[in-house]
Amino acid sequence: WAGYADLYADDGMLVLPWGTTVPKAELADDTEHNLGRFARTHHMSTNHQVHVTDDTATSRSYLRAVHVPADG
Known about the structure:
The chain is of the alpha+beta class. Helix content is 22%, strand content 50%. The chain has two helices and four strands; from the N terminus they run αββαββ. The strands form two sheets. The protein has a two-stranded antiparallel ribbon with strand order 1-2. Strands 3-4 form a two-stranded antiparallel ribbon. The longest helix is centred in the middle third of the chain and has 12 residues, at 24-35.
């Protein structure tokens, strides 16, 4: 989970479609809490749009996610 969080800039954050914003400092724990309960996951991310303004970048993409519960 820490490796995933390390992909973000120091001031980076994850903004989820339902309005939750997760700063990098909380990303590893938050992602483990949300995805760690599944036996398997599969995520496909497509149609990436990246917008750069000065020293700030944002991206947006489509995501299809499959989550298999740990209990089968």
